[in-house]
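Fold this sequence, please.
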Amino acid sequence: MNQPEINNKTYAIGELAVEFGVTSRALRLYEEEGLLDPQREGTRRIYNDRNRVRLRLILRGKRLGWSLSEIRESFDLYDSSLGEEAQLEWMLDKLTQRRDSLISQKKDIDNALEELERIAANAEQALHTLQAQQPKTGHG
């Protein structure tokens, strides 16, 4: 992956939380998991552009259904001497696994929807039959 251009801008935890629509607690969790490494000024966390890029990648990985440990593995590969090729091979493998899992889930959902429609149609027909058998009462 091409490394994005990084400048020297810094961000407070609240700024990143608002920008990415996450909680400060989530950012602290990502730090505890070793995914982010903000600098400290007393009790304040100061995030740089590298952390901002990593947060974007963390959130993308989560949208794809990756665990935090899988995201960390990706970062570790990127940071290792194995480099970009190993990371791309790993990512392609993970993407294939996730795609296969989603296709399987989609088939399960499609089957469940078909069964639901079949059961609903049978229930409607049974209700219609019961209603047709009831004597009509007329007032008038």
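The helical segments are 13-20, 24-32, 49-63, 68-79, 83-133. The chain has a mean pLDDT of 89.
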